Each structure stands twice: as structure tokens, then as C-alpha cells.
């Protein structure tokens, strides 16, 4: 499972505009292929016990019930804690959400505590499943087609390599959403070359309308941080 209908504010990534000079110092080692880099990033993500994510979108409509943003921590085997931004009745709501072992809790507007909810009614799936190696984020890396290496860039003190690819629309529908799963989704991944950690995934496709493209951006950080998530009291 996964988030559906996503978006929000992201961590600042302006330093992505700084390219890394290629060939400095020279090297006899062969360049890692796009496919190999994606495979390494999947392995690293599948081995991570936890990660912090920030999710954003562009091109979301102004009506409907949609997940338009979010930030929080995901941890194995199946838990999440954070804030999800939901568009409902023309307004954006910040929902405090906790997911533990398939049960999703939310603090609804004008309430003082958490309730068990069906996340589908808010336009998303179980965020606790995002690290599931069979159905979560890493499947985007595993199923990428026509992968090509892009530029190297420096984010802070870390070098990342871009990989562009196409993703099956049906897969993206399962992990995010799609109004036309027969159409492929364009992807641009940014992967830390030293650690193999996926830092950013920018996806463009028919997320909100079959005839129009929109963009979702997911940023990951703090792989393996000490995260403890427990079910909140309800009532």
C-alpha cells in the first residue's frame, strides 16, 4: 500500500542547481550504469529500518478529497507518524496521522484525540506500508524502464546522481494514484552516489486528471534513524 493523492511543502533543495564537475582527478573504474545505480538504491532502501520523508505535488485541483502534502517518519515493519495535508471541501487540513501494523489513526479537525480511520476516505492509503519492499517506494526503483544517467549534483556536502526513467502507470497507481494507469509516468530520481540512498523522486503523470499531467515529489532523509512509533490512545 502507499499514500494516495499527494503533495505539500518540501525540504529546500535549491542546491540541486550546483552541478559536480565530471572527470576531476580521473578514474579507471567503469561508470556505474543507470540500472545498477537504481538496483543499489533499492537494496539500500529495503535495508533501511526507517526514513524521514517529505511529499509535495504540483498541479492538484482545487476540489475533491485529495492528499496534497505530508511529512513524517516511516519505520519497519509497518508504521508511520507525521502530518498529512488533505484537501477537502475546498480547504487544506493538516491531519496528525499514526499507522501501526495496518491500523491507521488520525486526529480529526475539532477533536482532541485520535480515532481509527479508513484512510481511503481522505484520499490516501496506509502510509505505514511505504517501506514495504514488495509494495512500497522501492518498487519504483525496481520497475523503472528506459533508465538513463543524468547529471551529478551536489546537495550540501553530498553528491547525487540523477537517473531518468519511465514507470508503469499501473504500478504508480498502486503506490500513489493515477487517473489513467495505461499511461507511463516520467520519473527523475536523485541518488547519493556514495551511500546509494534515494534522496529525491520526482514523478510526472496523469495523477489528478487523465488528460493533464501533475507532478509529485518525494524526498527521503535520515535513513536508519532511531524511530519508535506506537499506537496512540483513542476515544
Short structural description:
The protein is mainly beta. The protein has helices at residues 34-47, 138-142, 169-175, and strands spanning 50-58, 66-75, 79-88, 91-100, 103-107, 115-117, 145-155, 158-167, 185-192, 198-209, 212-221.
Domains, number: 1
User: How many angstroms does the end-to-end distance come to?
Assistant: 26 Å
Pattern of helices and strands: HEEEEEEHEEHEEE
Q: Which fold name fills CATH's third level, the topology?
A: outer membrane lipoprotein receptor (LolB), chain A
Fraction of helical residues: 10-25%
- Uncertain stretches of 5 or more adjacent residues: 4-26
Q: How can the largest sheet be summarized? A: 11 strands, antiparallel
The CATH architecture classification is Clam
- Number of E strands: 11
Q: Shape from CA axes?
A: globular
Supply the number of helical segments: 3
Supply Rg. 18 Å
CATH class: Mainly Beta
General description of the model:
The chain has 235 residues and is mostly beta strands. Helices cover 11% and strands 42% of the residues. The chain is built from three helices and eleven strands, in the order αββββββαββαβββ. It has helices at 34-47, 138-142, 169-175, and strands at 50-58, 66-75, 79-88, 91-100, 103-107, 115-117, 145-155, 158-167, 185-192, 198-209, 212-221. The protein has an eleven-stranded antiparallel sheet. The chain is globular. Residues 4-26 have low confidence and may be disordered.
